């Protein structure tokens, strides 16, 4: 019997950026030495652009070494004569995304590994406008950092930096919450008597999301809100497999909760559970929010999705007379696409989304508030809204899988996909093939299959969408067979 892939142990200590910043295993690639080297490379870029007077804003989440890393980075920027606004305690990633343009900072930097397992940490960088830097920028950061020795790093001791005013501690929770509440219709939610269950997954959303829900007069019961760098022993990703406690809480509540909401470890992704305890996929949530923004809030415009997100958004856009746009995986591509077609909503099947007029990055806290507003203004439950949208778009069914990605696979799988043109997957004719990001195989009736290597984890991801659950599994089995046949 052929063995499935057994990945080699990751002992590479180089800094490598993926679609969601730099991430690595703590004690291997992720070390304070690498944090300092990367900070020096980024500081060099700030100096070359003459942006030192604008300073940088730095924060960290609840992971191991996040606070120490944020301070280590601050010492490097201070040592390079770049003022630092250091956010105390733990903060959500969207708050740092917001803080960069709010403070007119040269950059926003947060220490986080988002939804990765507890043994990981990393760094995300945001531009002055809150957008993620493009590949050529992050490639330059990592290449310069990897070429450095420890002697190339300039630091200023934290105590001295604070006394000199080069590092200033500042809380930005209120401005961030106030900015959200200027967009979300807080008054519309008051009086709705909405009761929600919330799972921050031991992450960073409790204070900000709790404040917003309180301002809405929404009664909220939180679980997993304490500071736990082990995240209860699981990766803090708000998907079906990891929200069992939230689902059980709603199912056993005798109808108390009208909604369950969750955010990932750094609060930029959302997970939703309806009033019956059914997990609502991000694909379905994007459909609901696109319809709501367009038809109830009257915000005209199209929708942007990455290539692993449902084509039902395209169907809904066509029904509404709007454009849809497909982009590569990585939220920087989503926001770039939104600007290109002036979209009202951009999102991805992994739980990230933003709307026109908000930050240029995904925000699970904002998304939770928008869902609460949607329920209050429509007067409908999630389950009712979903059935209504299906009447417009019809149904498609998704399936996903992943296998550990070895270096050999990263060469062999693309080579095999390019070697012979695909004309069919089993009995299903291939309409088109794209190598924009991995390999996406387009079939008839908005069905598709995708193979791509993750930009955040050593995993080969497989995703499909089809007319029925059975066909989706059939397509997924074909992908699995294709991958394993080359091993």
Automatic annotation (TrEMBL):
Coiled coil: none annotated. Keywords: Isomerase, Magnesium, Metal-binding, Phosphoprotein. The keyword Flavoprotein does not apply. It holds the Pfam family PGM_PMM_III. InterPro entries: A-D-PHexomutase_a/b/a-I, A-D-PHexomutase_a/b/a-I/II/III, A-D-PHexomutase_a/b/a-II, A-D-PHexomutase_a/b/a-III, A-D-PHexomutase_C, A-D-PHexomutase_C_sf, Alpha-D-phosphohexomutase_SF. The keyword Phosphoprotein applies. Residues 439-476 form the Alpha-D-phosphohexomutase C-terminal domain. Its cofactor is Mg(2+). Residues 15-141, 174-277, 282-388 form the Alpha-D-phosphohexomutase alpha/beta/alpha domain. It comes from the Bacteria. Belongs to the phosphohexose mutase family. This is GlcNAc phosphomutase.
């Amino acid at each position: 019997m052929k063995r499935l892939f057994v990945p080699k142990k990751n002992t590479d200590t180089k800094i490598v950026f993926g679609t969601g910043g730099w991430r690595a295993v703590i004690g291997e690639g992720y070390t304070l030495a690498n944090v300092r080297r990367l900070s020096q490379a980024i500081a060099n870029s700030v100096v070359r652009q003459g942006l030192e007077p604008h300073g940088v804003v730095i924060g960290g989440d609840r992971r191991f070494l996040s606070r120490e890393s944020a301070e280590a980075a601050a010492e490097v920027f201070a040592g390079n004569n770049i003022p630092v606004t250091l956010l105390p305690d733990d903060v959500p990633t969207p708050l740092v995304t917001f803080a960069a343009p709010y403070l007119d900072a040269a950059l926003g930097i947060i220490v986080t590994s988002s939804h990765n397992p507890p043994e990981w940490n990393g760094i995300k960088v945001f531009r002055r406008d809150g957008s993620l830097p493009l590949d050529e920028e992050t490639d330059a950061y990592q290449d310069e950092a990897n070429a450095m020795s420890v002697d190339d790093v300039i630091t200023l001791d934290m105590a001295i930096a604070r006394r000199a005013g080069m590092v200033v501690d500042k809380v930005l929770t209120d401005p961030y919450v106030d900015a959200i509440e200027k967009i979300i219709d807080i008054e519309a939610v008051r009086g709705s008597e909405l009761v929600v269950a919330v799972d921050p997954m031991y992450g960073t959303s409790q204070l900000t999301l709790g404040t917003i829900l309180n301002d809405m007069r929404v009664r909220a019961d939180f679980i997993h809100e304490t500071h736990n760098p082990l995240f209860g022993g699981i990766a803090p990703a708000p998907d079906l497999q990891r929200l069992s406690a939230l689902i059980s809480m709603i199912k056993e509540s005798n109808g108390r909760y009208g909604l369950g909401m969750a955010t990932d470890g750094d609060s930029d992704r959302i997970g939703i559970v309806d009033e019956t305890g059914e997990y609502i996929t991000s694909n379905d949530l994007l459909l609901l929010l696109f319809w709501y923004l367009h038809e109830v809030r009257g915000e005209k415009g199209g929708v942007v999705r990455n290539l692993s997100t449902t084509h039902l958004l395209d169907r809904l856009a066509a029904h509404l007379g709007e454009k849809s746009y497909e982009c590569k995986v990585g939220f920087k591509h989503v926001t770039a696409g939104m600007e290109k077609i002036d979209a009202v909503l951009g999102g991805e099947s992994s739980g990230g989304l933003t709307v026109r007029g908000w930050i240029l990055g995904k925000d699970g806290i904002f998304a939770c508030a928008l869902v609460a507003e949607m329920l209050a203004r429509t007067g409908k439950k999630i389950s009712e809204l979903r059935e209504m949208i299906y009447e417009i778009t019809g149904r498609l069914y998704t399936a996903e899988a992943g296998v550990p990605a070895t270096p050999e696979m990263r060469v062999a799988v693309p080579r095999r996909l390019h070697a012979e043109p695909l004309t069919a997957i089993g009995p299903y004719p291939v309409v088109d093939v794209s190598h924009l990001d991995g390999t996406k195989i387009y079939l008839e009736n908005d069905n598709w299959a995708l193979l791509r290597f993750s930009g955040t984890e050593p995993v080969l991801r497989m995703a499909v969408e089809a007319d029925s659950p059975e066909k989706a599994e059939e397509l997924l089995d074909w992908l699995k067979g294709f991958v394993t046949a080359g091993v």
